[in-house]
Amino acid sequence: MEGDDISEKLLSKVQVEENKVNIKEKILTEWKKMWVIAAPAIFTRFSTFGVNVISQAFIGHIGSIELAAYALVITVLLRFGNGILLGMASGLETLCGQAYGAKQYHMLGIYLQRSWIVLTVTGTLLLPIFIFTTPILKALGQEEAIAEEAGVISLWLIPVIYSFIASYTCQMFLQAQSKNMIITYLAACTLVIHIFLSWLLTVKFKFGMTGAMTSTLLAYWLPNIGQLIYVTSGGCKETWKGFTSVAFKDLWPVIKLSFSSGAMLCLELWYNTILILLTGNLKNAMVQIDALSIW
């Protein structure tokens, strides 16, 4: 009997040790799976932020007014549009995840096209803010010189609004399939190109704001063009079946989900916008906005 008890205790200890090993292996396996998706997503967001930092660094060498105007447009107007479009695009993440989990692979391409339609309409509705930037900023109490320069910069950034549509939707679409390494490669190449072009156009050839904004536009659009080519040219054979008129049907559920997702994210992003606007009403607004934008 004592021998049986000892054997049972030894077996139970072995089972406990085996369970510990299995748990560790499962945690490690899940950790690896998570980082396959998380690491490219983190780097992509970092690179998007990096584009603004690089542009801002080179614009800072052009002039204080230009830096303050760029900071005002980026942190107020572009962030306003960015918050709406990113929030609405996050609804696509839910739809694509559900469709991929249910093995309805063809629906991912349809959801992607529906999201393009909804976000394109939304982005177009935001255009008056960028077209009438100067009078809007003056009405909000910003310095006239900064408001005038911001009006010019905001016109340059209209294509960036549409680049967000392609960027965010393709990212959600590819992440649902764990195919987002292509996004990382494109983002890394874009940062290198953006640094070189910014130096070439603003420092070497001294094209001023024209050079800086040209490089910025290319930095936003190059990775998106790459993503669109990858998605539509065979990179996602199971989930992309080509353009279809079905995408124009049943848009209302997508609209509702997009707006509810957008509202949550906008509240998170806009607090900094209010801070910048308040700073523009202080004395020496140019210096204050420059300092806050660098921070």
List segments where confidence is low: pLDDT < 50 over at least 5 consecutive residues.
none
Number of helical elements: 11
Whole-number mean pLDDT: 85
* Helical/strand content category: mainly alpha
Helix content: over 70%
Radius of gyration: 24 Å
Major β-sheet profile: none
Termini distance? 74 Å
Describe this structure in words.
The protein has about 300 residues and is mostly helical. The chain has one domain. The chain is built from 11 helices and no strands. Helix 2 runs antiparallel to helix 3, helix 3 packs across helix 10 and helix 8 runs antiparallel to helix 9. The protein is globular and about 85 Å long. The termini are far apart.
List keywords for this structure.
mainly alpha; membrane; transmembrane; xenobiotic transmembrane transporter activity; single chain; 295 residues
SSE order and pairing:
Elements: H1 2-59, H2 64-101, H3 106-125, H4 127-131, H5 133-139, H6 144-156, H7 158-175, H8 181-204, H9 208-235, H10 251-279, H11 285-294
Helix pairs in contact: 1-8, 1-9, 2-3, 2-6, 2-7, 2-10, 2-11, 3-7, 3-10, 5-6, 7-9, 8-9
Question: Can you summarize this structure?
Answer:
GO terms for molecular function: antiporter activity; xenobiotic transmembrane transporter activity. This protein has eleven helices and no strands.
